[in-house]
């Protein structure tokens, strides 16, 4: 099997989708000739032509709003928002439009569309480019939020997202685009939406993350095992909504402790929802409060200081230790 | 600076006195008789809905009184395979495309059936967010183009909607992508309490087409003959790949913005009077009478028929909701 | 209804404890508010409950069921 | 002292602000001659003229974006967004612009501006008009979120919001605009931002709400006392960010139980943040999980069914009872 | 349909051969000698910044090479009390308004000092979100109008920015409110990899002014004499309450979008060559030489001076960041 980066795995998924279904079109800023600023759509314009892979004018609401129309009329648009921070421009078209099509029309229409966006920090990008805003969409009924953290999931989840009959926000951890390679099957396999993955079994504390934070969580898990003889269970949520509550609750009922890790600012981040859920569903099992390792409650800093701002492995280790030792 | 009025002279075929300027174009006398009956029925419905709200039977209703010719003309040229992407005041237009008029009542009642467009009818549910549907119109038209279907899409919106960023993005996308779409603006000159002159500084909405390098048209929206003919021409042209186009239909909201609104607070009675004289129904009636095609008896029959149909609709509505 | 005598825990009648310990108290049928905590800051810990459970019930305490 | 509705109290606050400071201007859709669709700005256009009370074109991003410019250049704009559901249109100008002015310019510029918006359900408004989206902004560093629930607070908080040197989102519970009257002093008093109010002292369970949900919370509290002999402590948050953690934690340490009530959909609502916070800061005190009474995870329904959808008093009572009986 | 090129003929005063068409207008020969020296210095800085990135000293940098005349002209007429509301590529324009050039390096380094505008200078920090600043420009200009200050505001943005809804809302608000603002578009013909023809269907950006009922102008953005003269005229007019205006300055991004970008993927070398011949610096040099006002020695002196100043800036920058 070929070893691919997340970027390559995504490119394969998009190519497979374009081949499988003539209703699939890719649109966004610079996704055509340029192959996207992160080269995720590289080569697709050349292979499928300008009717399938479309450079749009520079207007995010336009990209998402026309996608809603395309989708209602039977196409399957896969829109790229160049950086997640620019998603603000599209909030009405996502939350009041795409997410409500099925509801508004009593199922007469649906909006089978995917909005892809690179997100997360650590790549020294300018202001607004690195923000983690997934919690805005986990609070938006009608849209699914999917966040892969490795090449295998990236390909399989993206194909499932494109198959989905309703809108899916697909968030790609840009720091991990080319950070490592994994074995990725050639064929167009699917990874189901709505299922978390227990990437490491353990008994002492459940570490929960998604997308970019999985890198820290996995490194912290190694350290906990190696240095502290602690056996963490590691859960990669993969899909934030609909949330796989069962996997989370089962794990915490076993370990009785949990730490949630995300890059987004702390207040009202998705970590708060996870903590609220755990204390509600596994209350009598808890030996320690659910702890959160997150970004600070400030705007994402200028990148000279992003490493100071971003949660890191040692913070995850510290949180896990305080949980275990509580 | 450009004089929008000069660049986009008002297209008119039937003036407010009921005089035909030129000919009927693609329309026939029979068409106009039918149109008149339908318009009168729609007017009856609209006024009746207003009263239902006053009686507390339904909630907030947005009347289309005064805009019947614009809405009817907007869809006059559409085929079964064509699309309509309407806004929240377009019950008349949607009705002609196969959406029951009850939907206007469902809307005012906050009933979900409002969104239940009959299967096979190519109409989107009424849009509440101003201008959001303009982008959906672009997407729908683009989908038909990508599939090489020979169909036209009409997206409707108010004058106020042209201030929104989405309207601009829609016009720009549509023109760059050359989609088979007609942007149809019902310029009723008010966005709730804000008159057009505070909504924009340009003289006409039609001139906004220039910003996108497409053709724009300004038509008397209270003149069904003019609107219907223009839309016949343009929908044929968009089906042939010549779109998109922008149409400004100059009309007037004779009623309040909604039943929750009091126009007395912000607009002059003289203005309302002026536009009562320009009523789309009146000029059609005058012309038909002048042609000897409308007698008092005909009118009584149309009214009776309208009343009956409206009663039926309301009965069905009450039954559906059990009220 | 439960009839309870004067609580004896660290803070005026209400025990400090993790929810898991509270569950154990339920399982053992011990009124956690009657148990003296020996954990950090007077927190009631599992051993405190087990000790309390192995003692014969005081005649002034009836835990309702 | 005069007994005023929330609507009247807000109108008084706006009038006082316009009188006190010539830098204050009011702008929005229909705020001028019409006095706003809820008549909150009634009479102000007549009193202060079209340079101070401005009807804008129909464009929310334009309203907020020009307000950012006005504020950076020394004015104090008070912008009205006609219904909170249309706030989506302005997300970039709020979150990436207004909220970051001070941070971006190292304090060289600030954006002293208020964005007012009626929100919440129960008034049979059309789609999108009734959504409770406060959690989108509690997740936005750099903007304060203030939500009064009664006439006295409404006036005092709005004046404090206008004084504030940074942007404030001021959310007005539209169902309560004219629901009741309270004594409101004539003068231009302030109620401080960032301070919750304990509106009822109790020992058995802490009920937490804000804005429209306070109506349910207070009714439920009455019922708990009268029918169940339970003494709830009631906290009205008033300001969501910055949050008055101390008042919440102190109360829950006393009562050992908490129920949070909001109209917004459950997942990632601000109730999740409150629950996460409580279980973290008062863990050893908790006798029961923090419960949430919220809207469902669906789009806000068509209003024919809004009463079925909206949380109601009986749900709050039930949650409080399950907490107490846990 | 309207021919934008015809309606908005390109305003030029110094053609690419260095020939003056007409006269210098409000500028003097001395002005142009100084302008040339400054432009050369700015070019030196920009090229040096590019190299610093290639050496790994700084991060992503957005070069303004080729757009110097447009940026310098945009602010040529501004007084101390006037405002500039710039976008992320406007280091040259901001520099002339009192913002140290280091800020461009701070930006590429992700250093917060980027936003630390010197006290007393009426410039906003560089904007990253495309078109967001156009609305801030309207607000700033509106504030000055409300306070009856007699000042002009200039907001700058790229061609790509005109596709955003915020641009439209800004143009519309500005025209309705009649604010003293000049919208200055640096049309460098590319938005990263997207050429203007895929960005919009209209022939010119200037013609978008018609949509708002305001005056628009299309000027050769590589011709400092033309841009500076136009901005003198327009800033005086906006101070007198005649604004807003839209200016399209036709220019070209000679470099890559940023140091992270490879234009070879999407644009033809012939196009780049064409615009190298239209370099704003070259035509100024030709003209000055033809006037006998620029010798090889003068040039060497200017270069030496530029180098020295750039070295100083970089030294200061390295010291500030301790790198
Ligand atoms: C984005 C958005 N902002 C505000 C509103 C509230 N609103 C409803 S109708 C209306 C005026 C619309 O005017 P226009 O587009 O001219 O349509 P008309 O009502 O005249 O048909 C406003 C401001 C809304 N529905 N959507
Ligand atoms: C809202 C938003 N969308 C996308 C981007 C990413 N982006 C940065 S520059 C750019 C192209 C801008 O083109 P133009 O406005 O012509 O300015 P130029 O770079 O040519 O100076 C894009 C798409 C952004 N910064 N902001
Ligand atoms: Mg917008
Ligand atoms: Mg209107
Ligand atoms: Mg450009």
From TrEMBL, chains A, D:
<dbReference type="InterPro" id="IPR029061">
    <property type="entry name" value="THDP-binding"/>
</dbReference>
<dbReference type="Pfam" id="PF02780">
    <property type="entry name" value="Transketolase_C"/>
</dbReference>
<protein>
    <submittedName>
        <fullName>Alpha-ketoacid dehydrogenase subunit beta</fullName>
        <ecNumber>1.2.4.-</ecNumber>
    </submittedName>
</protein>
<dbReference type="InterPro" id="IPR033248">
    <property type="entry name" value="Transketolase_C"/>
</dbReference>
<keyword id="KW-0560">Oxidoreductase</keyword>
<dbReference type="Pfam" id="PF02779">
    <property type="entry name" value="Transket_pyr"/>
</dbReference>
<keyword id="KW-0786">Thiamine pyrophosphate</keyword>
<dbReference type="GO" id="GO:0016491">
    <property type="term" value="F:oxidoreductase activity"/>
</dbReference>
<feature type="domain" description="Transketolase-like pyrimidine-binding">
    <location>
        <begin position="4"/>
        <end position="179"/>
    </location>
</feature>
<dbReference type="InterPro" id="IPR005475">
    <property type="entry name" value="Transketolase-like_Pyr-bd"/>
</dbReference>
<dbReference type="InterPro" id="IPR009014">
    <property type="entry name" value="Transketo_C/PFOR_II"/>
</dbReference>
